[in-house]
Structures are given as C-alpha cells and as structure tokens.
Write a structure and sequence with these properties.
6-stranded mixed beta sheet; alpha/beta; Ribosomal Protein L4, Chain: A
C-alpha cells in the first residue's frame, strides 16, 4: 500500500493518507505507457506542412527554348524542381497523424502512471484552497513551504475555480488541470502531483 502526505492551506504537514490500491498500487505496465505516449504525441501533430510539386506551382505550359541548337541543356518546363521558382521534388504533403487506443489500454496507462508516482512518494494532498481573488504569491509561498518550489508540478482539482487557476498559471513549471482531464503524459511529465480532496474523490469514483 502506498500513502501520500496531507498538507493544510498554509503548507504544514497534517497526516498521511492511504491511497486506493486500484489506482495507485498497480504494477506499472511500461509497454502500454510507451504505446500511449507515442499515440498522444502523434495526435498533437497538426500535419499541415505542405510544399508544392511541379504540377502545382504557377508557370509551365510553354517550352522555355527549342530542344536543339542553343547549346543549353534541354528544358521542357520552367516548373522543374531544378529551376529557381520551380516545384519541389517529393515534397511533404498534408496528412492526419491521428490514432487511438482501446479504453482499457488508456485506463491501464493512467493507473500505471499514478502508481509510478505513488511508489516514489511523489503524490501530495492539499486541503481545498478557497481564494477570494487571484494571488500568485499565495501559491508560490505554499509550494515553497511544501518544499516543491523549482520542480515540475501537476496540480489537479475538481470543478471550475478561476481564482485558483489564475493564481497558478504564472508559476513556471506548474500545470493546473481538472482531474477529469488528466492523462498519462501529464503524469509522466511532472516531478510531483498535487491533488485536492475533491480531485482525489473524483479519480477514485471514476477509476477505482
């Protein structure tokens, strides 16, 4: 069984919480995680790169000069790739890189990522923060008190909290997300995971 340290709103240690075995205590499946990351990164590609072929550039239609007698190389069109302003040979074309994975594989990858963080004691629980207005300084001091400043952090909450979101978005290497939108790539890309009780409850309800 793995556990996480619970902090109050000021960053003081309160207690330790035993994490759900179904989510945080599974044996990481490295093969599935690798497949998920490959698919995730491929789906981020826009695939909009495009260059024109000799058939698509303007020009052509008239032979630049006669075939023989000029002393120059034969030329059939000014759209040839060897001409300045001509088309490009074997150019990149627009394509769709999208692919998908079965739901069970996605869930396995997510559970594996959570379990890897829990095994290294990199999951922290913090009490709900009810900010009256956006204040980056409050979050910065909180992370400093928790000894997490200067690290890559994924902060998960549940529900919309504009004040908390705005307070977090100006802090370097801090990613703020709703728990329902988390994915294995985000979890693998962070050093520490911070959860609120509501976020932990939401994850437990969905994945346990």
């Amino acid at each position: 069984m793995h556990s996480a340290t619970v902090f109050d709103k000021e960053g003081n240690k309160l207690d330790t919480l035993v994490l759900k075995e179904e989510i945080f205590c599974q044996k990481p499946n490295l093969s599935v995680i690798h497949q998920y990351v490959k698919v995730y990164l491929a789906n981020q590609r826009q695939g909009t790169v495009k260059r024109k072929t000799r058939a698509e550039v303007s020009g052509g239609g008239v032979k630049p000069w006669r075939q023989k007698g000029t002393g120059r190389a034969r030329a059939g069109s000014n759209t040839s790739p060897i001409w300045v302003g001509g088309g490009r040979a074997f150019p990149p074309q627009m394509r769709d890189y999208y692919s998908d994975l079965p739901k069970k594989m996605k869930r396995t990858a997510l559970q594996s990522a959570f379990s890897a963080l829990a095994a290294d004691n990199r999951i922290k629980i913090i009490q709900e923060l009810n900010l009256e207005k956006p204040k980056t300084k409050i979050i910065s001091k909180l992370l400093e008190k928790m000894k997490l400043s200067g690290t890559k952090i994924l902060f998960l909450t549940e529900g919309k909290d504009e004040n908390l979101h705005k307070s977090c978005k100006n802090i370097k290497d801090l990613v703020f997300k709703r728990a329902c939108l988390v994915n294995p790539y985000d979890l693998l890309n962070c050093e520490f995971l911070i959860l609120t009780p509501k976020a932990l409850g939401s994850l437990t309800e969905v994945f346990a």
